[in-house]
Fold:
Amino acid sequence: MDTRGLCQYSDSVNELLARYGVKFGIYKNNQFREQLFPFDTIPRVIGAEEFSFLEKGLKQRVQALNLFIKDIYHDKKIIKDGIVPEEFVYSGSGYLTQCEKVMPSKEIYTHISGIDLVQAKDKSWYILEDNLRVPSGASYPMIARDLCRKCSPQTFHGNHIEDNRNYAKLLRKTFDYVNTGGHTVILTPGRFNAAYFEHSFLAEQTGAHLASGHELTVENDHLYFIDYSGKKEQVGAVYRRISDEYLDPMNFLEESVIGIPHIYDVYRKGNVALLNAPGNGVADDKGIYYFVPKMIKYYLGEDAILSNAPTYLPFYPEDMDYVLTHFDDLVLKDVAEAGGYGVVFANKMSKQEKEDFIALLKAEPRRFIAQEVIDFLDIDILEQGEFVPRKADLRAFVLMADEPMVWKSGLTRFSRNPDSFIVNSSQGGGFKDTWVLSQ
Amino acid sequence: MGIISVEHSDRLYWLGRYSERVYTTLKIFADRYDSMIDLEEDEYADFCERQEIPNIYLSAADFARRYCFDEEDPNSIISNLTRAYDNAIVLREEIGSVTLSYIQMAVYAMNKAKQSDAPLLELQRVRDNIVAFWGIVDDSVDDEHVRSIIKLGKRIERIDIYARMHLDKKEMKREIVKLNRRIDRTGLHFSSKRLAHINYLIEEDVLDHEELVQEIEALLE
Structure:
């Protein structure tokens, strides 16, 4: 398949992306700026059979993660049975005592999961990270596909590419399945959030209402949206794009001004669905990641279909020994960080930095994981008229309604820096569409 | 019909007002600028007075530059366009990406005009995009309340500017007729008494422009 045919339309597609305001917000020197998200027209292509394998593995993983969260906040069997040490559960910042014994609508915690994968040079796929709180990014390939199809219909004709513009339908199905009765709202921290484009675009595409915290109110154990005539409309589902701690100043971070007082009490009583469920951070901690294959075996009785990147927990003495012995070959990640921050490649450290880091590692072993550096498969991008290879990952989206649904596309992010593995948009990365072939 | 919050109804209204303000002030500016080329160099002073904006400009050339493009000047056209954009960007769900894109393109055209040696030519593109924005509001915004609130903002702004600038009475009358037809469809609270007074004022042989400005500004208060 000729995937480079779209390149001649690169400028046109990027102009259209600018026209439709496909941007992300970034704070630099305490100033907010909107920045276009650089799009590369050469897609990542995944064959039907290969994607079918990924789909099975992703569904399996998200089902196990959902069961894990439910277990942690209720029976805690996985801890009692010694599969996951309690230190990894309770000391992580993602665990919230407020979620103990609270059951979400239809027992679903992981409504929208963003699972980051990379493909190694031998074509094997590895899971890099699970994002179960407020993963973002699906809107970008969705709108990019629409614009690419406008610019070059012939590229898509007869190539049997799954249409990824159904993401809004999948999302709507996810909302409706858990809705407890009433409107669906997408709760945004506001225009100055990095992902505001996505919030507003998904509201438009799903027909949900985009709202800020002050537009919603709790009365008599129910959540209401107040319209401009003063009428109160009940809300049954909230796709919240704000993090747990800011969700409700009465139950979480008291100084939050973007949350809704008592929304969590409404949720606790089963009168509104929150997507994703609060407390999910307990399962997407980088330390917990190590245990996901064990969870799959424990809850589903199956071997994990998709592999983790080889990971070591310095918390375990034998892993600490390995990490110290093979330090230069590893990448170290601070479990509390995200967005590509807190990731250090040992071979890039100076002698002094290494000594300092090892001292920190020994003092706080729970804080870090170490991974073998996977030699990513490079993907071509078009740069100043030339094709150049760059590192790229894939964020796959799994949505959970009556059954898990894997979106037949994904956000492929690439590093624009030839020497970097960091693909995050906040660090200058760009994105590509992901084509999944239907046959 | 969707539900619209107080904040969004306010933003819809101001999107209508600011987009109209940009369009009409650009139109007036282009006409005045043309006459300043070979007639009265300080005509901009009268423009400022009528618009009730401080005359901070040093010359016609300074006025032409700063009134259009000075982002630090809250009365400049670029500042008004930024306000239109700031309102539009949070209304994607109500007005749709396609409608929003015309405001975005007006912003790009304005930034291009700012860099240009012949800004009047580029500023025409700003106006073209705003005209297209109005067209697409009619064509693709299905919710009558949403459409009506934006258009109400547009009507009020146009009447306001025309009255301040003592422009065409016929055009004002036409806008007031449209205002009467539109205002009930917005669901917004307004003063019927003031509306009746506006209707009375426009029928007078000698129009009291100042009173009309006061009444139109207070219509929704």
